[in-house]
Amino acid sequence: MKATNDSLKIYALIAFFLLALIPQISAQTSYAGQTAYGGSKDDYAESISPTLDGGFIISGYSLSYTSSYSPFLTKLDSLGAVEWSKVYGTGYGFAYDAQQTSDGGYIAAGYLDEFSGFNRDY
């Protein structure tokens, strides 16, 4: 859970089978809604962080777009609409966390194995 500058708290809930759901709960704990993100197979959100423009960056891993789990980042605007989403590589990997940098870029922590064996890029 990370507090945002507009007094909302964002909870990332991982659905057991398919989708990552992002419910928004106001500071008074009143329900504000939920949206499903992701593809048609297993997609898992690992973290959600606020961005400089009031939106959010989600990091995780997905089986929806490649033959093995691949790391992804998804950028949401302040209302929860997807601005962009990117899956990185075609090998096995995970994105555990992402943050926006002061220059407007993004940095992610995780790993990607583009080759067979244990040759992981961190």
Task: Characterise the protein shown here.
0% of the residues lie in helices and 47% in strands. It has 122 residues and is mostly beta strands. The protein has a single domain (2-113), classed as 6 Propeller (Neuraminidase). The strands form four sheets. It has a four-stranded antiparallel beta sheet with strand order 7-8-9-10, with no helix packed on it. It has a three-stranded antiparallel beta sheet with strand order 1-2-5, with no helix packed on it. Strand 9 and strand 10 (82-87) form a beta hairpin. Residues 5-32 have low confidence and may be disordered.
Short key terms for the protein model shown above:
3-stranded antiparallel sheet; globular; 122 residues; 12 strands; Neuraminidase; 0% helix; single chain; 47% strand
Topology:
Layout: E1 2-3, E2 9-10, E3 13-14, E4 20-21, E5 24-25, E6 36-37, E7 43-50, E8 56-62, E9 70-76, E10 82-87, E11 92-100, E12 106-113
Antiparallel strand pairs: 1-2, 2-5, 3-4, 4-6, 7-8, 8-9, 9-10, 11-12
